[in-house]
Design a protein that fits this description.
254 residues, 7 strands, Rossmann fold, 10 helices, 41% helix, seven-stranded mixed sheet, globular
């Protein structure tokens, strides 16, 4: 994962993100629903983006101290403007590598951990930041995400793949959690979207930063290439559709 390229992609389209992030917003509501009753007075959100999940956390935990971290300063700008005077501490930092000397009751993240270089090392770091009965709760995209696009690109370009190929599978996520936490649960959900054209899907991916490093070095977005890829897509799937695989993961420490 080329993190510099990923950050550049997210920052470039930060102000358009909310218009295209329907799936991420659905995941945020589902994630919030999974927060069971408990004393969560100190919360850290990892990868807060434009602050949509942050706002839900603030509404649910009105008196909690919330630290929201994101690697993109442009995303933080949007979030800070959206949640002005809401008492959120926003921090621009690489949450995978930042050093903290604090303790939290809840560390949570929506649709971010798939971009981490070493999820296991990060979760170990977060485990050390959780207090007694502390909870880790996050959603992350799985490798089945954009399977239709990936399959089509491979059939047309033969050796291409997209960032989702490297997303962590459920089995590995569960192993990491069970090695480090108690009361582990993982729930998979899939969402599907349809688009009028391939260009519509590619714009959605671009403006939500979901392409990560990019869609592959050999993809040319000229009209001829788009037409060829779109026709192959239609032949294989009878429409321009996209599947999102999301894992909702939770663990607790003693």
């Amino acid at each position: 994962m080329d993190k510099k390229t990923m950050v550049r992609n997210f920052s470039r389209y930060a102000y358009a993100y909310d218009r295209y992030s329907d799936v991420q917003r659905k995941a945020a509501f589902e994630l919030l629903r999974r927060i069971k009753k408990g004393r969560f007075n100190r919360i850290m959100e990892v990868g807060c983006g434009t602050g949509n999940y942050t706002l839900l956390l603030r509404e649910k935990f009105k008196k909690a101290r919330i630290k929201a971290v994101d690697i993109s300063d442009k995303m933080i700008e949007v979030a800070d403007d959206k949640l002005r005077n809401k008492g959120i501490e926003f921090v621009v930092a690489d949450a995978e590598n930042m050093d903290l000397n604090e303790e939290f009751d809840l560390i949570t993240s929506n649709a971010c951990f798939q971009w981490f270089e070493d999820l296991e090392r990060a979760l170990l770091k977060y485990r050390a930041l959780l207090g007694k009965n502390g909870v880790i709760l996050f959603s992350t995209f799985g490798p089945f995400t954009f399977r239709e696009l990936n399959s089509t690109l491979r059939s047309v370009l033969k050796d291409n793949s997209i960032a989702a190929d490297d997303f962590i599978p459920a089995g590995k996520a569960e192993r990491i959690l069970r090695d480090n936490f108690k009361e582990v649960t993982i729930k998979e959900m899939r969402y599907e979207e349809s688009f009028v054209s391939l260009a519509g899907l590619l714009n959605k991916i671009k403006y939500t930063g979901a392409r990560g490093n990019g869609l592959g070095s050999r993809i040319s977005f000229d009209r001829r290439a788009l037409k060829e890829i779109e026709q192959a897509y239609l032949d294989k799937f009878h429409g321009i559709k996209a599947t999102y695989q999301i894992f909702f993961c939770q663990g607790r420490i003693e």
